[in-house]
Amino acid sequence: MATAIEFNNVSKQYRLGLVSTRTLSHDLNRWWTVNVRGKEDPYLKVGSINDRSKKADSEYVWALRDIDFKVEQGDVIGIIGRNGAGKSTLLKILSKVTGPTTGTIKARGRIGSLLEVGTGFHSEMTGRENIFLNGAILGMSKAEIGRKLDEIVDFSGCERYIDTPVKRYSSGMTVRLGFAVAAFLEPEILVVDEVLAVGDAEFQKKAIGKMQDVSSSEGRTVLFVSHNMASIQQLCRHGILLKNGMVEMTGEVGEVVDYYLGGMKNVGDFNRRGNGAVRVRDFRLSSGTVTLGEDITVEVDIEAVHDADMVDISFDITDELGKQICHVSNYDDDYHIPHMSQGEKATVRCRMLGVNFAPGCYNSSIWLGNPYTTFDMVYSCIRFRVTQNETFIKRITPYDRASKVVLQSRWQ
Amino acid sequence: MNETQEWTTVIKPKDKLLSVDFKELWRYRDLYTLFVKRNIITQYKQTVLGPLWFVIQPVLTVIMYMVVFGGIAGIATDGIPQPLFYLAGTCMWHYFSDCLNRTSNTFVSNSGLFGKVYFPRLITPLSTVTSNLLRFGIQLGLFVVVYAIYAIGGCNAHLTWYILLFPLLVLMMAGLALGFGILISSMTTKYRDLQILFSFVVSLWMYATPIVYPLSLVKGKMAAGFDLYTIMRLNPVTPVLETFKYGALGAGEFIGWGWLAYSFVFMVVLLALGVVVFNKTQKSFMDTV
Question: For residue B6, what is the nearest residue in chain A, using CA coordinates?
Answer without folding.
Answer: A108
